[in-house]
Amino acid sequence: FMKRKSNPQRFRKQPPSNQVDHDTGSAGLRTLADSIHRGNFVPALTQIDQEVANNPDPDHQAKLLSLAGDCLFKQGKFNEAATVYAQVFQQAQDRPQTWLRPVIGEIRSLLKNVRVEEAQARAVTAMQTALAHQQEYQALLTQAQATIATGGQAVIPARPPSPAEVANRLGRFFFAEGELAAAKTLFQQALQLSPNSAHARVGLAEIALREGDGATAATLARQVIVLGLYRAKTLSAWNILLAAGRKTGTNVIDP
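Predicted structure:
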């Protein structure tokens, strides 16, 4: 039998061939992000400078400049990255679709640089911004629905990131850096905003487990499993439930 030659590209991650571009700059942004991921910082920054100069669209510029922050973050220059992200957020905070990316970058940079109190303050700002955009979205949506109901035409605005989603995402970052108190506060906020939030319950269960409270972790994990109708998406909760059982020495599967 002839030995088949191995193809070195066979197992390398390839870009999807059918990915849909939602705006004209999507493909270029993905290429830049991939270049940064591979560590090609100098050519990426050169291209970012060129595109910022040639494309005045504020949303596109915010995305580009956030990628510049990513270049610094990837190199471990967390203080400089935080400064860049903060400047981008200052420009984009009134843009419903682009404000979150830079403030998340800033918070992650501050946490990596052990500037925890500043990160917590920025998380408060992020939640306030999320709530403001949600209120604005609801007002625009109500107005559009009223216009359509009377036979008129209206543009339905794109939904901005929900406050619960923002709280959950920020909670994960604080949890990953071992800041359990701040993470717990954010997950609790997410649960108040979205009472059926599985992400918030999983986060709180993981914190309870980390703090040695197996009983609370098991209760939260069971809630996730029941609310998720025992589907595959509840797998993380099953893992927490089993870990809680080992910690408490109880039968958590059939209590």
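Summary: The chain has a mean pLDDT of 90.
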